[in-house]
Amino acid sequence: MVFVCSLVLLLKFIFLYSLFSFTFTTCFPLIHQKCHDDESHALLQFKKGFHINKSASLNPFGYPKTASWNSSTDCCSWDGITCDEQTNQVIQIDLSSSQLYGTMDANSSLFRLVHLRKLDLSDNDFKNSQIPSRIGELSQLEYLKLLDTNVFGEIPPQISQLSKLLFLQLGVPRIASSKGMLVSQLNLKLSTLRSLIQNSTKLETLGLGLVTIASTLPDTLTNLTSLKRLIFSKCELHGEFPLGVFHLPNLKVLDLGYNPNLSGRLPEFQSSSLTKLGLGYTSFNGTLPVSIGKLSSLNLLSIRDCNFFGYIPSSFSNLTQLMYIDLRYNKFKGDLSASIANITKLDHLGVGFNEFTVDTISWIGKLTSLVALDISSVNIGSDIPLSFANLTQLEELDAGSCNLRGEIPSWIMNLTNLVSFDVAYNFLHGNVELNKFLKLKRLVFLSLSFNKLLLYSGKSSSRITDSRIQVLSLDSCNLVEIPTFIRDLSDVEFLSLSENNIQSLPNWLWKKESLQDLKVSNNSLTGAISPSICNLKSLLGLDLSLNNFSGNVPSCLGNFSQSLEILKINGNKLSGLIPQTYMIGNALHQIDLSNNNLQGQLPRELINSRRLEYFDVSHNNINDSFPFWLGDLPELKVLGLSNNEFHGDIRCSGNMKCTFPKLHIIDLSHNEFSGSFPPEMIQSWKAMKTSNTSQLQYDQSSQVVEITNREATVTRKDPYSFMMSNKGLVMTYEKLQQFYSNFIAIDISSNKISGEIPQVIGDLNGLILLNLSNNILNGSIPLSFGKLSNLEALDLSLNNLSGKIPQQLAQLTFLEFLNVSFNNLSGPVPQNKQFATFQDNSFEGNHGLCGEQLLKKCIDHRGPSFSPPSSSDDDHESESFFELYWNVILIGYVGGLVGGVALGSAFYPDVIGWLKRFF
Ligand SMILES: *[C@@H]1O[C@H](CO)[C@@H](O)[C@H](O)[C@H]1NC(C)=O
Ligand SMILES: *[C@@H]1O[C@H](CO)[C@@H](O)[C@H](O)[C@H]1NC(C)=O
Ligand SMILES: *[C@@H]1O[C@H](CO)[C@@H](O)[C@H](O)[C@H]1NC(C)=O
Ligand SMILES: *[C@@H]1O[C@H](CO)[C@@H](O)[C@H](O)[C@H]1NC(C)=O
Ligand SMILES: *[C@@H]1O[C@H](CO)[C@@H](O)[C@H](O)[C@H]1NC(C)=O
Ligand SMILES: *[C@@H]1O[C@H](CO)[C@@H](O)[C@H](O)[C@H]1NC(C)=O
Ligand SMILES: *[C@@H]1O[C@H](CO)[C@@H](O)[C@H](O)[C@H]1NC(C)=O
After folding, report:
1. How far is the CA of 412 from the centre of ligand 7 (A)?
2. What does the pLDDT look like over 757-781, one tens digit per residue?
3. Which of 324, 376, 416, 816 has the fewest CB neighbours in a 10 Å radius?
């Protein structure tokens, strides 16, 4: 059987922390004068309110500025304090990165310093306290910076009283900072933003990165004519971005990245001082205007993962100041060379995952400053160009799916700065000695997967190597054993060796305690799974699927790692019981035990897996009653129990909650369930009542592992795939999270379910697939099915259903597959364009049915009138939408590489994504 696995590795390069560092231009000469007692006192009181804690600041050069403050010295001379020359009043406080740890008190003595013009408390830890509303009392403030301070909650409306502000930055500048603040902690009401815009008309810098605003941006933003820097990255903005902002005369930096629902387009540019433009991960669309060539100061352009298309205009070659270009994951086409070849200052060039073509790519060798190059999916069709040997600064080379030929040239080892080297999915051949890669001392990420390479370890180095390789992807590399090379990698965390011919796992593997992800699916592994595997206590993901493992499952497997998220042992020959213990608070998201010979009952301890989203035991010999108790799992979305020996009624019992609050997909087919299909159960499946994708989302959190080298971050995410029969075929739904997050399906076929089909199924209007075939259902097809407006496949065959096929089914414009064969249905088959596409085998075995599909004329003239399609135009439209919809899915399903989603600002961490799959 063909099975599908995939691995997503996102390598983030965080750089440019200082991108938005801002020099406060007003001069305040520092002259030593006696400061005012009350101010000195207020400052000392402020100092007392905090502990000094090293980990409260991320900046390695930070130090506790307040430590030297004491009452015997002039406060105007204290570290971080500046006083006014004439009045000796404290006018500036800069306590950024001062390792302050404690709460921001609403009564803080800080608010007594009413002459303050500058306040910078960035990079301290205020322990989830709120920004006090009294901030509005500091009416002289011109500069307020509270970045990365671990403050929480609503930004007080009083902030808009600061009408003298020139500079305001709140929120978090760096995503995936080691404080782990991936989620927004601050929010700003639209009304506050409006007043701020109205009142603080002199603003030059408005930075609200990672502050939740969750609205459209007001047009009045264009009134802030002094704006130089506008940063709204990851603010949950939506709606249309006000075009006028691009024309603000002083605008230098515009960052709107990571607002996926923010739409907009690029304007006709006038000459402008714009230097940085970040629109990555938004819904901006359209083409690049020719006038983009007028942005002669632009040095950063990040528009990855937007909806841009078309050719890069030749005027682009005018942008010679560009150092950073990221166009990845759009639909640009045409030959790149003309527009980019002469931009020689480039250090980052990301053009991958578009539809670019190239006649020749050797010109890239002229871009000798390149540090990162992503040309993934550009069809190169030749050897790795020799000119790349010129790129000696290169730290990252991503050339997956480039139709590369030939061997991996030996001069690659001359690129000694390489941190990441990815040539997966090409046609490279030849022998590769893995040990050679140890010469690349900075190499962290190596992917040679899916080529035609023959790998061997090479001469074993006797000494412990100092290789930094952490991510190693050698899928489909003709390996017959785990390369001993790996034994020498002391830091290896991600190991992907699927689709090889590996026959056994060496014992040294169990000592690799740094391993976080081990994937050896689809090899030829035999024998029992060694219980020593449970020594790998750092594992987040373990994939042993599609091998020939036999014997019992080690009982520790459910319980060896508090951090394990993914456990896949499906597609083996394992027998015995499912592991019985699952520790409380475990992190399991996915358990796939399908296609083995497991027996006994489902362990009730599974209920400890509160984060479980995906549980599949299909195709085993489990003998149990309906596991209604799994309905208490708050995150469970996919439940596969098909092809086992489950029996009895499908219902809840006892006092247990059995609501299955997030269930999307349930497959109970091919068991011995009996009784009726209880309406109460169906009603409780609330998640199936929505087609609103945002409510259906799978857990997007994935492990982010910081890699010290070049501050790269690898994100591991295993997409779920689920096999289910649909339209009479067994389908694998790959990457559920990405492509099928609104795939809602019920399959209870081939059981012994009796009684009538409950009307309430019609309320599950998110349903896409419903299969009730091969049961002993009677009664008629509920009219309520006409409400299942998203339904694409309906199988009611092989039951005892009677009556007519409801005319309402003709309203289901997405219905692509219908099977009502072998029932006792009668009357005319509804006639419309939709139904005309169904063949006679959809209806056969129903003696009373008539209609064109059955070549059997309906002679009952009193039958329902055949309502014509409401309007042929409408019909046409929905049809083309339908096609479009499927094309989108097919790109993911059949095509090679598709875009991933990652967190981060469009500027700071540049995220390089691999989203790779194979059959
Ligand atoms: C605007 O600023 C003035 C002066 O600081 C203040 O009195 C007023 O309340 C502010 N308006 C808003 C809506 O905050
Ligand atoms: C601000 O902009 C709005 C519309 O964008 C305009 O009606 C209003 O007059 C402007 N206010 C000022 C003070 O310029
Ligand atoms: C661009 O996006 C807007 C807003 O979502 C949409 O109305 C428009 O049709 C899109 N344009 C193109 C050319 O895709
Ligand atoms: C190229 O840049 C110059 C200024 O450096 C500008 O005058 C000219 O219009 C630009 N050309 C195009 C085609 O945009
Ligand atoms: C690149 O620059 C060279 C020399 O300045 C010039 O001859 C060539 O035409 C330029 N190429 C493009 C595509 O602009
Ligand atoms: C290598 O770089 C030099 C400039 O450093 C350049 O002159 C040369 O053409 C480049 N070679 C190739 C093959 O691109
Ligand atoms: C690679 O480095 C070696 C040794 O430094 C040198 O001899 C060789 O010419 C280099 N190869 C290329 C293609 O630059």
Report:
1. 9
2. 999 999 998 898 999 999 999 999 9
3. 416
